[in-house]
Amino acid sequence: MLIFITATDTEAGKTWVTASVVRALLHEGRSAKALKPIACGLDEAGRNEDIDLLLAAQQVDDADQISLFRYALPAAPSQASAAEDQIVDTEKLVQWCEEQSSEVETCLIEGVGGLMVPITDDWLVSDWINALPDAEVWLVVGCRLGAINQTLLTLEKLKQMGRTPARIFFNATKPEFNTWLEPTRKAVEPFLNQSCAIHALKFGKAPNVIR
């Protein structure tokens, strides 16, 4: 099973959700893998917090096992790659994701930012999702001021793509954001497909989505 984890914005908690789910699956003895195919904002060692968190969740240490394109600049992939005189090879990206997913029962792919983040000058995260038609889409919402608007815009875009989310995670990324969970969920829930599983995650709470 292939799962694409996207979000309403950067810093919404995609990595936290992805790492928590793959850790739980592996703990249950499932065949699972979590990928961060594109990573931007690397330190001098060529790593960042997202990569380290996903590696630790899977008890592996080689970033090449989970990531294909990595760039130093903390920016959209189109800009981060251009800063190094490179362009993300989108065909190679899609092929790599498919190859990685074929090796395990469940493969989690963590995207970059939200749906409209440019991977290249003419290819967005939404195009990446469309290039993986068999992938189930999970949406992570960083609950804070402005989250309702961003979530409804994201849901509308996914609806246009014919890719309504199978799961939505209302996530508090800081303790002080816990109070935003219920108001955000209540405002968004009427716009969700009835089959969409809803998770509300207080700060530090891991999602329970073992199938």
Write the layout of secondary structure elements.
Blueprint: E1 2-7, H1 14-27, E2 32-35, E3 38-40, H2 49-58, E4 69-71, H3 77-82, H4 90-101, E5 106-114, E6 118-120, E7 123-124, H5 125-130, E8 136-142, H6 147-161, E9 167-171, H7 181-188, E10 197-201
Helix pairs in contact: 1-2, 6-7
Helix content: 25-40%
Computed Rg: 16 Å
CATH homologous superfamily annotation: P-loop containing nucleotide triphosphate hydrolases
Order of helices and strands: EHEEHEHHEEEHEHEHE
The DSSP helix count reads: 7
Q: How many domains make up the 3D coordinates?
A: 1
Largest sheet: 6 strands, parallel
Q: How would you classify the quaternary structure?
A: single chain
**Poorly predicted tracts of residues:** none
| Through-space gap between termini | 12 Å
User: Would you identify the CATH architecture?
Assistant: 3-Layer(aba) Sandwich
Mean pLDDT: 95
- The coarse silhouette is globular
Description of the structure:
This protein is α/β, with parallel strands linked by helices and 211 residues long. It has one domain: Rossmann fold (3-Layer(aba) Sandwich). It has seven helices and ten strands. It has a six-stranded parallel β-sheet with strand order 2-5-1-8-9-10, sandwiched between helices. A two-stranded parallel ribbon has the order 3-4. Strand 8 (136-142), helix 6 (147-161) and strand 9 form a beta-alpha-beta unit. Helix 6 packs parallel to helix 7 (181-188). It is globular.
